[in-house]
Design a protein that fits this description.
Structural class: alpha/beta
Largest sheet: 8 strands, mixed
CATH topology of one domain: D-Maltodextrin-Binding Protein, domain 2
Radius of gyration: 23 Å
Number of helices: 11
Order of helices and strands: HHHEEHHEHEHEEEEHEHEHEEEHE
Distance between the termini: 36 Å
Mean pLDDT: 84
Number of strands: 14
Strand content: 15-25%
Amino acid sequence: MEMRQIEYFLAIADHGGVAAAARALDTARPTLSQSIRALERELGAPLFFRMGGGLTLTAAGRALLGPSRRLMRNMSNWPDVLAPNSGDLGGHLDIAVFPALADSVVDLIARFYTRHPRVELRLTDMHDDHPRATDVVRNGAVDAVVMHLPVVDDALAVLPLGEQEFVAIYPSEVDLPPGPVDLTSLPDLPMVLVPETHTLSRQVGTTLRSRGSRPRVATLTEHREALVPLVAAGVGGAIVDRSTAETALGLVVLRPIEPPVLRRFGLVYDEARLTPAAEAFLALARDGKGKEGCHT
């Protein structure tokens, strides 16, 4: 098995086909196809099967995915592995972030870049409430995930970073009394909501129903980024994180919620597979919060 074969395998897995992978790598399609066939013969199992117009991983391909990603990441970081005390850290750091939490880690990322400018930091968006969010850590796709807590995965470690506050927002022309909005007696306005497949929506919905409150629904959307524009356009009210709401002040009216709606968030990672860059990132996060990581 050669490193180039692993690179080709990952490119096809990431791009869903040979043609797209060849374009991404600027390599001829026959070269990729022949290399993958040779790898499959060596392993004694097919790695892909054709589905529609693309390629999908087989069980053997899925089993190879995580080790291959870790191998490629370790290769890119090998100078730091060999000389971890050089003081001039390099390599790559891959972090997946849920969009709603991106603003919460901007300062941490900026401090890390200032301290380690040679590290190539790659941020990946996670879909809200991905059912298997920790899989991207387990399969080696990223070094850590910034996500809401708790996490039910005893094999991974967690470094709590803080709490995210959620607030109510309404169109700017709505005349609201000052002070917090009671979650169980919201103003008589329709709401722009996301489905209860999202954990925050379930949390809010459960609280409302437990107290006999059922707000009118103006719009149900899967796209959290559409909440503020819809509210600003006068469609109805919504519940969003405070940092998002504060960027739209003037377009919307913001009110705290009673009882408060808070969600803990943190970094989720695999202690056994940390690269030097990932270790430095976690150390900086611990220094900033004054907290030690803990297992779930």
